[in-house]
Inverse folding.
């Protein structure tokens, strides 16, 4: 690409809302970025230490097995392995254990509601 071609491309870019142009042909390449172009920071998500507790299967969520007390309450500390609920799959009940010790920050499901595999049921802040 010669100097005149580069100047033509730059003149054209200034007539558009483009702020960056990249061109490549074989091993040759060129890249233009207008100086007055706004600098956009790369997208990022804030760091979090919260851990989702997800459904182990598909079924109806229950707080506990019949006759057992409910363990999951917002703001309550739980130990790793504590049973936070039961998933009634229509044949076999699956326990929903706490994956690690921590405090339950948010309960995302109600008793008797359907749950899908991998659906977040609770949010836990590790201890």
């Amino acid at each position: 690409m010669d100097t005149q071609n580069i100047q033509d491309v730059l003149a054209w870019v200034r007539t558009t809302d483009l702020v960056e142009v990249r061109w490549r042909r074989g091993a040759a390449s060129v890249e233009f970025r207008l100086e007055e172009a706004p600098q956009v920071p790369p997208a990022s998500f804030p760091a979090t230490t919260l851990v989702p507790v997800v459904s182990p299967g598909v079924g109806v969520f229950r707080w506990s097995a019949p006759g057992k007390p409910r363990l999951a309450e917002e703001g309550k500390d739980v130990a790793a392995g504590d049973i936070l609920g039961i998933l009634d799959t229509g044949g076999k009940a699956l326990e929903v254990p706490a994956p690690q010790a921590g405090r339950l920050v948010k309960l995302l499901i109600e008793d008797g509601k359907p749950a899908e595999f991998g659906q977040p049921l609770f949010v836990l802040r590790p201890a």
Summary: Residues 3-33 form one domain. The first strand starts at residue 20 and ends at 25.
